[in-house]
Here is the input.
Amino acid sequence: MDAGLLEAARPVFSGNPGQRVLLVGQAPGRVEREVSRPFAGRAGRQLMRWLERGGFADGEDARRRIYMTAMTTCFPGPSRHGGGDRRPSAREVSLCAPWLDSLLVLLRPRLILPVGSLALQRFLPGLRLDDAVGRLFDVSQADPGDTRTPPLHLPLPHPSGQSRWLNDPRRARLLDRALAMLPDLVAWAEAG
Here is the structure.
């Protein structure tokens, strides 16, 4: 197989068994692919600042305590229109879905942080960021015989500079509300 294809298909995620908080973004960017670390680029630095506001000591503390992955674990390539990365196609998301499904079974997270609209549609289909950010969701449809605690979901917007979602002050307040909930939710997830 061509080494270039292997490079392009190198999956990017980080975490360890036992982490009870799962953060799911859209896809790794060019920087993430190069360093094999999720949220390592400019959007990742913004996300780490948000997580610090949400109670983590710093970005490294967040990385130690949160399993980080994405809807697709490989860099989808640059946008054809310039200015950012290409959003993964429905086919690419579908191809990666079994991996994410398996991860959910293995980790059994208590708290899931869907980041951006693509992850939001996976975990809370039909909701828009405006209706989801700043709110906590319990979407359990567990089997009555299942004694596991179903995960809670706390959606966040995408931290990319390409996103204009946070330019609206009302939306920025929704993010503030979500980040204010995060310390207690993380403590609850880790205690489980």
About this structure: Residues 1-7 have pLDDT under 50 and may be disordered.
